[in-house]
């Protein structure tokens, strides 16, 4: 890659985007396709044939030899099967490059090995991928050469969603319909569409590639299962926003270049709180594109890391003792003509529509806090949520002083006749301008914070897809909008009715608003008094999917059927059990084959030293004996914990898949893993570093 990057030139060069389509497609086909993309008009096979042909020609010019239907099954990562464009050889032995409309719009991967939670009986393992023309196709260049990637949805033969994308698109339809209905009531006759906009900030760790390969735990599970804290952690706060090291800077440069080519608007990059931790944020995009782009971001971060002799860790908690990684999901609702429904304007009390939207969101989040919590649960995130660093496991909303004041006025007097002014932020430095202070301050401890003109949902895990949180947000807010429109459309006095409704929503759901410190013990108690759910772990969060309230909600808005929800629940339990099983078995493997033998060697060296000294003279050997005793004690403890972990892991794997098994893994296997880790981490602090069988935390965190 060259040193000079002409960003405007390369941006989107590998994307089959609007300008490419306009330039290459016949006018009529282009117009029809636009209607399909924007208004959901049906796509004919003739159209698809023309589009497929042009897409193929374009991709071949970019060096593509293959195409793939790129989809997002319930594995958390993307899946793809590559097909070359070639046709069967002709009599003269030559092949042609072809790609039909049918191949563009529909694929039939062998779906039996993707998680389906029983939706697809294996004897009938057909699954289909269907082109999502609202997310542009792109060419990806990597070691496989160049591949035309076609974003698709993945469904069963009978149309049940087997992926992240399908429900997301369904939820976008629901929020579009209900938001339009709502803004029409306020006299908006011009907007044609309302789209949830999403900006996903991605956190990650970078470690040295060779050291990574010496850690079996990182290889198998993506996180360290053992590891004593180094002398230095993140206490100096010197990494956050610190100067980016050259090696990392050169990595980021290549990541950006790759992302820009694929049309991902990578915008912000900085060091994060923990050593070796970084963040990348793109500019927000329509939800389905943002979800796709986030997958591209994660893949690109990993791929480029290897090229730089590094490894990118996307796990939520790669290292105990320093911060884990999350993904802030910024969400707002924007019309096709650029109006953000979450923009309060300068004087929020004037902006009735904004207040109604806000009050509906407050209602939605309060009513379905359990679903939102569930949407952010994944195996790795259990180490963050509620673990005193990232947002707490209790859902609450942070509005900021100005808006909270408006809500308080509304609830107490039924009127809001003034807004707190932002005031000036005086820097005290004459040469700096006086900045207009943002009237909404930041609160980093809130899981769901209003940040000016969007909500920032901060619970999502770094490795997880952002699809589920947005499915939930879109649907729960669509429901609140629908209920509002049902009332307001019938109202005789609209102004009065809006006013009453805003007040009612705020008064009934005010308990979800919390502007204080979300990490504090007092908040846990206070939230309990308020009756807010405090769901501490993934296995306890999963049942939220299938409560009556959830089924009613999702069925009403045609986002999930009951069967689809039940299947998702099953998939989640299975995923949890499998992940913990792998972690437990990795620990057993590492402890048995690497750690215990290393500790025995160390103990032997101590014994030899004692004997040697004694043979030579009668000098003091109390240090060696002390160490030997301590080492032997911890070794015995390790062995005991190891045996217990084996027993429990075996018991867990014998159980039938489902809730009970997942609960057993969580309540029995996880503590046994902790119990094994404790003596091993103590041993690491004693044993000769030369003899310890893997790089330490210090080696991994400070030596990139
Ligand atoms: P902050 O400092 O508030 O987190 P940033 O400007 O860094 O804000 O934005 C964080 C993320 O939020 C970015 O991905 C950005 O594109 C996205 N974002 C900004 N405005 C909106 C919006 N109206 N809707 C959705 N996402 C947004
Ligand atoms: Mg942010």
From TrEMBL:
Extract the SMART domains matched here: Gln-synt_C (SM01230)
Sequence ranges assigned to domain GS catalytic in this UniProt record: 164-595
Superkingdom of origin organism: Bacteria
Domain GS beta-grasp positions: 65-159
Gene3D superfamilies in alphabetical order: 1.20.120.1560, Glutamine synthetase/guanido kinase, catalytic domain
Named from the GO MF annotations, one term is: glutamine synthetase activity
Q: Pfam families, from UniProt?
A: Gln-synt_C, Gln-synt_C-ter, GSIII_N
One of this protein's GO BP terms?
glutamine biosynthetic process
* Similarity-based family: Belongs to the glutamine synthetase family.
Q: Which PANTHER family match?
A: GLUTAMINE SYNTHETASE, TYPE-3 GLUTAMINE SYNTHETASE
The entry's protein name is Glutamine synthetase III
Q: Which organism is it from?
A: Candidatus Pullilachnospira stercoravium
